[in-house]
Amino acid sequence: MLNWDCRLERTPRERREEVLRVDFRRHDLPLTPKEAEREAARCLGSRSCEACDLCRLLCPDLAITRDPQSGQIQIDLDYCKGCGICAAVCPKGAIKMVLEEEF
């Protein structure tokens, strides 16, 4: 840190008393692809939207907004062109692209 005389002074940092230990030993056997998929789904939680706003920020059509009352993400399908960017960037996999049924 520089003081008023523009000289460099070193100030000692406080040391944390707790010691973090990292163990790199292998604790489990390799998983089969099916088991790995099940574990990944468990780690990602319920796959529900956490309103991280990635989809809203990257939507080129501005079709994704946030409800001011509830804070929930809303997709306006009248403006959505179906590019799939929102589904690709969603870290929880909460947005799925499906074909629309013709009426």
Overall SS class: mainly alpha
Which CATH class of the domain at 33-89 is shown?
Alpha Beta
Biggest sheet character = 2 strands, antiparallel
* Gyration radius over CA: 24 Å
Kindly report the CATH topology of the domain at 33-89: Alpha-Beta Plaits
Secondary-structure arrangement, i.e. CATH architecture of the domain at 33-89? 2-Layer Sandwich
SSE string, helices as H and strands as E: HHEEH
Describe the secondary-structure layout.
Elements: H1 33-43, H2 54-58, E1 64-66, E2 73-75, H3 85-89
Antiparallel strand pairs: 1-2
Question: Which features does this protein show?
Answer:
two-stranded antiparallel sheet; 3 helices; mainly alpha; Alpha-Beta Plaits; 103 residues
Report on the structure:
With 103 residues, this protein is mainly alpha-helical. It has a domain at 33-89: Alpha-Beta Plaits (2-Layer Sandwich). It is built from three helices and two strands. It has helices at 33-43, 54-58, 85-89; strands at residues 64-66, 73-75. It has a two-stranded antiparallel sheet. The longest helix has 11 residues, at 33-43. The protein is flat, with a radius of gyration of 24 Å. The mean pLDDT is 77.
Summarize the structure.
With 103 residues, the chain is mainly α. 20% of the residues lie in helices and 6% in strands. It has a domain at 33-89: Alpha-Beta Plaits (2-Layer Sandwich), CATH 3.30.70.20.
